[in-house]
Amino acid sequence: MKTVYADNNATTRVAPEVVEAMLPYFSDLYGNPSSMHLFGGQVEKQVIEAREKVAQLINCDPSEIIFTSCGTESDSTAIKGTLGSYPEKKHMVTTRVEHPAVLNLCRHLTKNGYALSELTVDSQGNLVLDEVPEAITDNTAIVSIMYANNETGVIFPIEEVGALIKSKGAVFHTDAVQAVGKIPLDMSKSTIDLLSISGHKLHAPKGIGALYIRKGTKLTPFILGGHQEKGRRAGTENVPYIIGLGKAAELAYKHMDDENTRVKALRDRLEKEIIKRCSDTRVNGDTSNRLPNTTNISFEFVEGESILLLLSDQGIAASSGSACTSGSLEPSHVLRAMGIPFTFVHGSLRLSLSRYNTEEEIDYIIEHIPPIITRLREISPFGKSA
Ligand code: PLP
């Protein structure tokens, strides 16, 4: 069966060059980078290079990058590490549309004596900027605001927010897991103190991430133990995966223009054709301010999960805004925060592309979605057709 992978915000294919770069570190190059002998020295050099490549992707100094196990660990390190460094401050600010890696952690911390302010978004998924200055007080330790939303792709005005945060003296963390590798980021011109990266969103494997820590930022380590990562993250380095992330960062840097031209054009055509061919649809999120690879489309009177299953039957992998939790359909917290009408929230479909998608694959998706929507509407109690 033909397969088309259009769920790249969930995870990405590991680039063949990344696999190739990693392989020797599972066989001959198995040294521990901390070891003084030649086995250690060989790999230590390559870990240094991988750190340089990750740093290049976001234009920071390599010493400002630590490797972690995933985006979630980077988020937890940033948030818990900052709270640990400012024990007198008991307040956090985040947004209602964060990934659970940030939102669930912050909400959990409210059970441990911390107060939390959650900023809202408008109907386009854009951050309501006016709320930022009011939300930050002298008691605010950290403001954690995602760079780009994983469901809609909407990009937040991070530097504008950063300027407001800096004037109040809080630490600024951004979960940039969906942005890194898709849009250019430049830490040398930024107000960001801490930035989370996840390897498997940019064609490295699952199980590797990184955290940018601006020089001078106070951060209590999340994992204590050995001296690795200059004492900022203990544990023997996951060398093959670090090499993989370095290679993926190098490739993302090289392919950045392609992502923002060819991939964007594929996404735009896909979205336009679906909207043209299916009635009662809407695009969720500000279309003028999005990641180049993401579209989130709602089909009224249809269940997103049903679309996914029928698409999967045709070999097409996508994602819906809802998560089926313990038998009940939980609508997307992001779309609900945007105030999307109930009849649309349940019928949302996220298609997220990568540099591996082709024109022919886009044609295949365009061909298969309208009949699926027609079929589902025919059996829906509303009896609508595409
Ligand atoms: N933050 C965002 C915005 C994400 O989209 C994801 C993964 O979907 C994460 C954090 C978690 O990253 P990881 O899967 O590497 O833990």
> Would you list the SSEs in sequence order as H and E?
EHHEHEHEHEHEEEHEEHEEEEHHEH
Q: What structural class do helix, strand and pairing data support? A: alpha/beta
Assembly state (oligomeric): single chain
Largest sheet: 7 strands, mixed
Largest sheet: spatial strand order: 2-8-7-6-5-3-4
Q: What is the level 1 CATH name of the largest domain?
A: Alpha Beta
Q: Which percent bin holds the helix content?
A: 25-40%
Structural domain tally: 2
Distance between the termini: 25 Å
Number of strands: 15
Low-confidence stretches: none
Mean pLDDT: 95
Estimate the global geometry from the Cα principal axes: globular
Write up what this structure looks like.
- The protein is of the alpha/beta class.
- It has 11 helices and 15 strands.
- Strand 3, helix 4 and strand 4 form a beta-alpha-beta unit.
- The two termini are 25 Å apart.
- The relative contact order is 0.16.
- Pyridoxal-5'-phosphate (PLP) binds next to helix 3.
